[in-house]
Amino acid sequence: MIDRSAQQPSFAFVAASWGALLAGSCAYLIGLWNSDMQLNERGYYFTVLAYGLYAAISLQKSVRDRVEGIPVTGIYYGLSWTSLILAILLLCVGLFNATLALSEKGFYAMAFVLGLFGAVAVQKNTRDIQAVRSAFPESNTTFEIQDSDSRV
After folding, report:
1. Using the 8-state DSSP alphabet, how is residue 4 labeled?
2. Residue 36 in domain
3. pLDDT tens-digit series, residues 6-46
4. What domain count does the chain have?
5. Residue 130 exposure: Cα atoms within 13 Å on the Cβ side
6. How many helices (H) and strands (E) does the chain have?
7. What is the pLDDT of residues 41-79, one digit of tens each?
8. Domain contains 91
9. 149 belongs to a structural domain
């Protein structure tokens, strides 16, 4: 049997996760703001980012729920995977057809992937912290994220 005891994420990992989410999303949005694209193109890429972030978080949640034994319907699980794949495909098709320099296309792709990674990591940390709080309810009033040096 797998030991699923609650383990608190380190402060460094929580900070790095939020940093990745903010860096990826902000870089992507600043790139859109400074681009010479028409407004409808900017709206398309913004919507793809928002859809991708939601799909990544939804997929991470459904995978984690299944691992923890929380029931997840097959339809929702499948839609989560489909949504993430569609968001990535929409970005790829949009960038393939865009009249942007290759460096700009690469910038948007990397910022998008960094944002998705950050969203998944932040969601994981949120669930880990909630698991620690439910495993140790007596410490809920003064719960703080431990630094990696103070872990036993």
Report:
1. -
2. yes
3. 688 899 999 999 999 999 999 999 999 999 999 999 999 99
4. 1
5. 9
6. 4, 0
7. 999 999 999 999 999 999 999 999 999 899 999 999 999
8. yes
9. no
Buried-exposed string 33-71: b where 16+ CB fall within 10 A, e elsewhere: eeeebeeebeebbeebbebbbebbbbbbbbbbeeeeeee
Range of the domain at 94: 13-133
- Examine residue 139 and state whether it is found in any structural domain, yes or no: no
Q: How far apart are CA 93 and CA 97, in angstroms?
A: 6
Q: Which two tokens stand for residue 8?
A: 């608190």
Structure tokens at 133: 């709080």
CA distance 127 to 134: 10
Local structure of residue 68 (DSSP, 8 states): T
Interatomic CA distance for residues 23 and 36, integer angstroms: 21
